[in-house]
């Protein structure tokens, strides 16, 4: 039996476009809506959006006329103009908000345009996700009307010349609708706090005053917050403080590595709901209990394309080639990895977001996130994905009855050959050599390429066990605490240099 039933007025149901339709038709409708709105912009004029709209096959024409972009290329050619205050560049009007997103590997901040149209699309997707709770069974109805603790970035945005910049979570919270404010925690005052440690301290101090039913955020930071509350008030578990806590809405990283440690903090089972909300838009959400993956938001504010994540379309460093093969939603296959291209209602066009996904149920448009185009290891052809790493960590953690909430992997030369060096966070007593051997064995089972290369050029696997606090401290030193920041699963470039300095005590 569903936990509640909602009968919506027809006008609202129509606005939310709840009835199911062909994903291909939905996506073409979204593409046309985006093109019509932006056809008089500089971008729309250069790439002949009117011609695309008049075409018999607008999807194909769009791909033919508009090149693909990554952040650096679209910023250099277009988005820098919006930061200078110029209107009608890639989307009508001036851009007044930017989400600061450094991802997990770049050193410099990225300025991702945020428009009222994008925020509107995000909100409709969020309402649809809330309504999808009708599909969940055996969860407490009363939890839905309790407080929602949303642990995100500061709503005290940076004021620049002509615009504001900050975390998308901070921009979204700042624009919280009035009807939601009584439920929203930690409230406007604490949400403005930029100092992450101060914010956590203030949340812990206020925790006894709240009756929380939902918590929303990145697993690592939510877990840290709950641990602080339990320690401060000498509790056995978080349900001693919040007995009505029933839902955890998470996203950004795979929850599996955190789950074992997370559940130690609970007094009873809760329902986990996965979301895929990036700075560029609300991409997907879990809309039914025990689903294989998250349903793509195909009918609102994002047009998706899918680039097969293979050697034809990407270099060994994870850079996309010019003119890659790009598929539309009706052309994808289950079980294959794709890099996402987005065209959005904020002026991102055929934009490589950097994530890789896999369809687990094409008919329902359900996906799982498998990693990042840059976050994989293929030094000698082992093609080791974040998805492979997560599975190995999950299985081995369960076998050894330990908790590994964080980890990262580095590729290293070893004479004329190569090695993988794992750094794992584990506060339990564990034999590092045994843990490394078990992870290596599990990867050989789930990845044939890895198994082959372990017999040839990939000569060794090393593993160091660190305290979880060391991973958190590195993120603090890098200025990546709270909000949507998460530890990269593969370290390369500047982040790898800084990590090595940190381990030597040279990064302060």
Automatic annotation (TrEMBL):
GO molecular function term, any single one: acid-amino acid ligase activity
Pfam families: GH3, GH3_C, GH3_M
Domain GH3 middle residues, every copy: 297-361
Domain of life: Bacteria
Gene Ontology CC annotations of this record: cytoplasm
Domain GH3 C-terminal: 388-492
InterPro entries the UniProt entry points to: GH3, GH3_C, GH3_M
Name recorded for this polypeptide: GH3 auxin-responsive promoter
């Amino acid at each position: 039996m569903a936990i509640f039933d909602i009968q919506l007025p027809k006008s609202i149901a129509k606005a939310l476009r709840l009835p199911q339709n062909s994903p291909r038709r939905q996506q073409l409708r979204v593409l046309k809506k985006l093109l019509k709105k932006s056809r008089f912009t500089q971008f729309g004029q250069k790439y002949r959006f009117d011609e695309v709209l008049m075409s018999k096959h607008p999807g194909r024409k769009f791909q033919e006329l508009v090149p693909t972009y990554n952040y650096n290329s679209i910023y250099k050619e277009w988005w820098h103009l919006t930061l200078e205050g110029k209107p009608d560049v890639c989307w009508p009007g001036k851009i007044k908000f930017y989400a600061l997103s450094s991802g997990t590997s770049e050193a410099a901040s990225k300025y991702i345009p945020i428009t009222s149209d994008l925020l509107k699309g995000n909100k409709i997707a969020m309402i649809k996700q809330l309504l999808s709770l009708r599909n969940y069974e055996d969860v407490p109805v009363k939890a839905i009307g309790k407080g929602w603790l949303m642990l995100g970035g500061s709503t005290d945005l940076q004021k620049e010349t002509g615009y504001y910049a900050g975390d998308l979570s901070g921009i979204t919270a700042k624009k919280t609708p009035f009807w939601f404010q009584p439920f929203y925690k930690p409230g406007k005052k604490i949400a403005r706090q930029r100092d992450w440690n101060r914010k956590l301290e203030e949340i812990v101090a206020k925790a006894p005053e709240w009756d929380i039913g939902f918590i929303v955020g990145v697993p690592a930071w939510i877990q840290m917050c709950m641990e602080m509350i339990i320690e401060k008030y000498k509790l056995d578990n978080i349900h001693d403080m919040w007995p009505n806590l029933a839902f955890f809405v998470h996203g950004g990283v795979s929850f599996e590595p955190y789950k074992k440690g997370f559940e130690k903090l609970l007094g009873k089972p809760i329902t986990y709901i996965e979301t895929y909300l990036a700075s560029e838009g609300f991409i997907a959400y879990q809309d039914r209990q025990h689903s294989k993956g998250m349903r793509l938001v195909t009918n609102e504010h994002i047009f998706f394309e899918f680039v097969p994540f293979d050697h034809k379309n990407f270099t060994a460093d994870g850079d996309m080639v010019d003119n890659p093969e790009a598929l539309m939603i009706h052309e994808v296959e289950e079980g294959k990895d794709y890099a996402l291209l987005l065209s959005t209602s904020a002026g991102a066009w055929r934009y490589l977001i950097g994530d890789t996904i896999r369809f687990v149920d094409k008919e329902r448009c359900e996906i799982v996130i498998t990693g990042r185009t840059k976050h994989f290891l293929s030094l000698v052809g082992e093609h080791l994905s974040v998805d492979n790493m997560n599975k190995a960590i999950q299985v081995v953690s369960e076998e050894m009855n330990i908790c590994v909430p964080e980890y990262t992997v580095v590729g290293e030369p070893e004479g004329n050959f190569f090695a993988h060096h794992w750094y794992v966070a584990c506060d339990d007593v564990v034999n590092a050599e045994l843990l490394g051997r078990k992870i290596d064995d599990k990867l050989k089972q789930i990845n044939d390429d890895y198994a082959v290369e372990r017999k040839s050029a990939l000569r060794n696997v090393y593993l160091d066990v660190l305290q979880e606090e060391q991973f958190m401290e590195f993120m603090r030193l890098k200025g990546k605490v709270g909000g949507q920041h998460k530890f990269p699963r593969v370290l390369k470039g500047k982040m790898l240099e800084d990590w090595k300095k940190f381990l030597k005590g040279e990064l302060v």
